Amino acid sequence: MRHGPQTIPIALLAAACVCLTGCAPPRPAIKGTDGPAVAQAPYPALLPFEQLTAPPALPPGLVEGLVAQRAALVAAAAEQRSQP
After folding, report:
1. pTM to 2 decimals?
2. pLDDT tens digits, residue range 13-63?
3. How many other β-carbons are positioned within 10 Å of the β-carbon of residue 34?
4. DSSP characters over the chain
5. Which of 7, 11, 13, 54 could hold 3 in an S-S bridge, CB 3.0 to 4.6 Å?
6. Within a 10 A sphere around the Cβ of 7, how many other Cβ atoms?
7. How far apart are CA 21 and CA 4, in angstroms?
């Protein structure tokens, strides 16, 4: 099996990258960085479902525009399928 002229440098580069990942510094420890006040803080109050804000209204003509765009795309796809 014959390899291309760039196969060996790519393999050496990949091996070097794998070897260098062992030299990376360890990740810092995250646990224990919060003070005792965080553990003593009360749990935040949750909003009742009825008080949540309703989603904004759709802009006028958005649904009609999307339906028309879909129809145009379906027609374009049908035309492309009909060509040899």
Report:
1. 0.36
2. 888 878 777 776 777 777 667 778 887 889 888 888 888 888 889 999 999
3. 10
4. ----TTHHHHHHHHHHHHHHHTTSPPPPP-TT-S-HHHHHSPPPPPPPGGGSPPPPPPPTTHHHHHHHHHHHHHHHHHHHHH--
5. 7
6. 10
7. 27
Structure tokens at 36: 């005792």
Q: Per the structure block, which two tokens stand in for 62?
A: 């958005």
Instruction: Tell me how long the chain is.
Output: 84
Cα–Cα distance for residue pair 47/27, rounded to 1 Å: 37
Q: Which residue has the tokens 């399928």?
A: 81
Question: In which residue are the tokens 């492309």 written?
Answer: 80
